[in-house]
Design a protein that fits this description.
By secondary structure, this protein is an alpha/beta fold. It folds into 2 domains: about 10-125 and about 250-320, FAD/NAD(P)-binding domain, CATH 3.50.50.60; about 130-245, FAD/NAD(P)-binding domain (3-Layer(bba) Sandwich). About 25% of the residues lie in helices and about 25% in strands. The protein has helices at about 20-30, 60-75, 150, 165-175, 195-205, 255-260, 300-320, and strands at about 10-15, 35, 80, 85-90, 100-105, 110-120, 125-130, 145, 160-165, 180-185, 210, 215-220, 225-235, 235-240, 245, 250-255, 285. A hairpin with a 6-residue loop joins strand 12 and strand 13 (about 225-235). Helix 4 packs parallel to helix 5. The longest helix is centred in the C-terminal third of the chain and has 23 residues, at about 300-320. The chain is elongated and about 75 Å long.
Amino acid sequence: MSKDAQETYDTIIIGAGSAGMSAAIYAARFNLKVLVIGKVVGGLLNDSHNVENYPGFASIPGLDLMMRFKEHCDHLKIPFKEEIVVDIAKQEYDDPKWARFALTTEDGDGKHYSYAARTVIFAMGGKHRKLGAKDEERLAGKGVSYCATCDAAFYKDVPVAVVGGGDSAAQAGELLAQFASKVYILVRKEKMRAEPINIRRLEHNPKVTILYGTNALEVLGDKAVTGLRLSKPYDGNDILAVEGVFVEVGHDIQSDLAVRIGVVVNGRKEILIDGDSRTNVRGAFAAGDVANRTYKQAITGAAEGVVAAFSAYALLKRIDSGESVDISYDS
């Protein structure tokens, strides 16, 4: 892409979750020409049954919270592209005012588009991790689900299982108990990692049984799920009869795009950032679950998105004011 490309932005944000939209709001308030690219507005938080730890909202469905974010972005007339970034490359020019990054996207119809950005903010978050049990993928969509919020209502008055030990598993179990006849929570370790309040809710729900130290080895069923083969017996049987299996075993970090331009990641594939959300590549920033932060919450992601926007603005302000910026190396 040439430096004269029409679709050139001060900053392009990849990802439309809490981190990405927060970055966009601040970038727009800084009067930067900003674009948000994300396949799904709201990201994984859309799947959260209730968010009860976001300041200002005692309890709000994740989808509703993300729509509040989007309404704020719409108020500022921030453009969104519901596309997937399939490639990104650095562009080396003598003048730092020219676009540094070239992006290629793909829409749902397979059409490709090109954009250029002076800075980029990676906020892709993660994607649902697969359980790895036998026949899990074969029965995906036929009783195996990765979104309790999306599918809970389809399992009215039938037994289901949730596999996982964190807050997402606890929240999925609580939601499913409103529909299913019985909910089994399969926890690989001897205790759950969820917040104590979420664990207490499960323990006091007569529909819920927590099976500690138990893995799901195989998903059973021909055309639809009929049960799970367990790693250790429950009630004298290693077959657990359920009609739905909800997988809540965490997320895989989506940092591959960043790696393509030389951004450094750690062993968990998290993008390494400093206190200002800067990566090792000049003009590239990261925020939210994709970054190497211990606590991955909507509120921390939003905060990091704000910091990333501040840092992008500060860099562009330096460049546009004529201040010397060394463009011969990344730092």
